[in-house]
Write a structure and sequence with these properties.
Layout lengths: L2 H15 L4 H8 L3 H9 L6 H11 L13 H4 L4 H30 L10 H21 L2 H25 L8 H18 L1
Helix pairs in contact: 1-3, 2-3, 6-7, 7-8, 8-9
Length: about 190
């Protein structure tokens, strides 16, 4: 088997194990998905700089790409960066909820304040958490997940403003009309990116 074909087979195997599409891998490497497809078919091979990026991305040594038979150490595939990123994102969300709880409890214990309105502190945590998940999705290259997180963040922020206005006695439901063009722009931007 030709070297290009061996490299391509190994790239494809690692990409599938990492649950990445050709498009997602290409975006991580700043290449087109057509280039990834050519590599996987053995029509061409990546440059040495790209091979180094691939080895770091998939957590393998560079020589992994040049052999069909792999030692047992190679077969234990894991990508610790994604797990660390996810755990960090979850930790940040827990922090946001903890701060919301602290604001709520502080509001409940203040005798001069209207404690019934402090429940909105939990609503304020939602757009912040969606922002954390947006950055996580961007980090792992999941653009659709990022789009969903941005949408959730935008709509929860508008809901937060609406509820805050409702608490002070203003029924400002028209604020949701602001979200419609932004949502359409997000969808069009995503379609243009493909």
């Amino acid at each position: 088997m030709e070297t290009k074909a061996i490299i391509g087979k190994n790239i494809q195997e690692l990409r599938i194990r990492a649950k990445l599409t050709q498009y997602e891998l290409a975006s991580k490497l700043n290449y087109s998905d057509k280039a990834i497809s050519k590599w996987e078919r053995g029509e061409s091979a990546p440059d040495p700089d790209v091979m180094l990026q691939l080895s770091k991305l998939f957590n393998v040594q560079i020589d992994y790409f040049y052999y069909l038979e792999h030692q047992e150490q190679y077969m234990k595939f894991s990508n610790p960066f994604r797990i660390k990123d996810l755990l960090f994102t979850i930790l940040m969300c827990i922090t946001a909820l903890t701060l919301s709880t602290a604001v709520f409890l502080l509001g409940c214990f203040l005798k001069e304040s209207n404690a019934r309105t402090y429940w909105i502190a939990f609503i304020y945590a939602l757009p912040i958490m969606s922002l954390f998940f947006y950055f996580y999705c961007r980090r792992i290259g999941c653009f659709i997940g990022g789009l969903v997180c941005i949408s959730i963040g935008m709509w929860t922020m508008l809901t937060t403003v609406f509820l805050q206005m409702l608490i002070i006695g203003i029924d400002f439901w028209m604020i949701f009309l602001i979200g419609l063009p932004f949502q359409a722009a997000l969808i069009v931007f995503r379609l243009m990116k493909n």
